[in-house]
Specification:
With about 375 residues, this protein is α/β, with parallel strands linked by helices. It folds into 2 domains: about 120 residues, Enolase-like, domain 1, CATH 3.30.390; about 240 residues, Enolase-like C-terminal domain (TIM Barrel, Alpha-Beta Barrel), CATH 3.20.20.120. Helices cover about 40% and strands about 25% of the residues. Strands 4, 5, 6, 7, 8, 9, 10, 11, 13 and 14 form a 10-stranded mixed beta sheet that branches. A 3-stranded antiparallel beta sheet has the order 1-2-3. Strands 12-15 form a two-stranded antiparallel ribbon. A hairpin with a 2-residue loop joins β1 and β2.
Length: about 375
Amino acid sequence: MDTVAKIETFEAKVPLAKPLSVGSAKITYRSYTVVKVTTSDGIEGIGYCYSRGLPMGQIISNVMAPIAIGYSAEAPNAMRKEILAFNWQSAEHGTLTAALSALDLAMYDAQAKRQGRSVASMLGATVDRIPVYSVIGYNYGSDESGLEAEIEYAVNRGIKSFKIIVGGQSPERDAKRLEVLRRKVGDSAPIGVDAFRTFKTLDNAINRVNLIKEYGINFVEDPFLESEGLLAQKLREATGVPISYGESLASSKMIAQVLDHDECDILRIDALVVGGVDEFLTATSYAATQGKSYSTHIHTEIHSQLAAATSNLYVGGLEYLDPMYEIDLFHHLLHKPIQIQDGAALLPTTPGFGIEWDWEAIVHFSHE
């Protein structure tokens, strides 16, 4: 039986060219915990998570590796459950589960490589590409010229759906930006908005959404904290606009509770937070039984492989944050980011997740 022989972690801290405002936070760097699992037959599986400056590598090395070393390399889901059971006091909480997600992804990467197949193929997928929607509008600027340039660039890449950031300035400014976007992309293009939990109060949220809904909004993402699902319901009732959230939910059980209470219309999910592959597929499958679609949270290289095996992806496709914007800096750890052609992500057919890691860059940013 093939077993886990070695686990290595790398904490890559990549500086932003200039500080980024995300909701009320000022971000100066992006950090990623990269996990390399080596099995007893020499196969290397690679996973990662968005560590946000938290000590994910230490959690993996100190808490998870003692359980994982010597464990069957062919049973990632059983390993995940045992680690959660052993650490029951912290199970299904964001930090622990994000670290576990990275380890789980590494295990699945190794498993697919053992079979000589892509993760998508191993999961039964038959498609070779997945449509994407482009995230735009992080930087407001003094006028809408920068936004217009972003839209034109995406359209020229064949992208047909969008998500735009709102809540950073006045409701009137957001309405103007939505008017520009809708005019540029036409009436049929799916458009979502991301509030980054900035609305704070129900009255403020209703005012803001009512000002922009005339431009045809497919969803409002993260109007409030995940724990404020009742406010999300009231916002939907008051405006008629669908709600999307869930990227910080740390298990398929937590997601099921949100869906059972009808707190969101389009599930928002992140495989790098929810616990890895099985939890992602369990959650999205449950959403389908409830008649719900789902959208993803960046990490297109990972999510494209998993979404290919599902049937209820959001009509606009996967979330995609173009490397040219230098906002998510994951591409600095790669030789080549996922390829986008005619508005779709092309699924690599190489074994595993097909990510072309740049180990020199990973080591470099791990020593910054």
